[in-house]
Amino acid sequence: MYESMFSKSLVNLNVCVNNADELFDFIGKDAHEKGFANENYVRGLKKREAQYPTGLIFSDIKLALPHVDSIYINKPFIYVAKNAFPLKWFQMGDSKEMEVNNFLFLGIKEPQKQVGLLSSIIASFQDKSFVDDFKKIDTSDVMVKLMINKFAQIAV
Amino acid sequence: MKIILVCCGSGVATSPQVANKINDFLADKELDDVVQAEPHPVETAKSRIETNPNIIVYVGIAPADDDLRETIEENNVTEIVGVPWLTGIGENEANAKVLAAVELATQKPTQ
Asked: Which residues contact B69 (CB under 8 A, 6 or more apart)?
């Protein structure tokens, strides 16, 4: 039922930007141009991340989950991105510095409906076998399959 | 019903995750009829704590600023960092803190 949130066009595993601002410009603009987010989404991302950073250090992977208030989102989506090298980022909670090259941009439109999906994503990144697959995958095709196989069938 | 207030920046993504995790834990401990976790945007935390004496724990995904921390302390609310429920690292310890705070708050005053 979440299948529509994932698409090959919302996966980019070959991003090569130098910092968080450039990443937000690049991914944010793409999500906007594809109709998933409105014209203020990039600004919303930057503002939200500066106030409440989204980097998380799991046992086996570092991940950032940039997200914004639902007013910026037209259609719910999850945009998967990997940068060519780790970017300087800040941790959720204590704002400590970290480095990260894995990103899931969460386009949340109706929080109540997407809570099941999010908790499943969080659980998956605690699971080593899923994380190993996620790290290994280097094509959009395989990545979107992994996402749909893992997440599309979850009941809300 | 006692309340565990769970706050992130927007109240849409991470705080509902953490609130669900805490509610699962409370259900496991059969405490779900005395206390529940509620996700809310952090902007509303101060006024909620000031006006609702049933709030016993504040779980912040972001650290409380000085103003909010003062309110938390004045109202004898326990502050717990929420990130362990997202990453799983330190989750047992965080659950133990919740349990301790709930036990403390639900104790009948002894005369």
From this structure: B79
Domains and CATH numbers, chain A: 3-151 (3.40.930.10)
CB within 8 Å of chain A, chain B residues 72-101: 81-83, 86-89
The tokens of A112 are what?
């109540």
Type of residue at A29:
K
pLDDT single digits (tens) A37-79 = 999 999 999 999 998 899 999 999 999 999 998 999 999 999 9
CB-based contact (8 Å) between A111 and chain B?
Answer: yes
Q: Shortest Cα distance from B10 to chain A (angstroms)?
A: 6
Spatial distance between the Cα atoms of B41 and A49, rounded to a whole number of angstroms: 15
CATH topology of domain B2-106: Rossmann fold (3.40.50)
So where are chain B's domains? Answer: 2-106
Predicted confidence at residue B110, as pLDDT, reads: 46
Token duo for residue B15: 């705080």
List, for chain A, all residue ranges whose pLDDT scores fall below the cut of 70.
1, 153-156
Question: What are the structure tokens assigned to A76, written together?
Answer: 């719910």
Which residue in B9, B17, B89 is closest to A48 by CB distance? B9
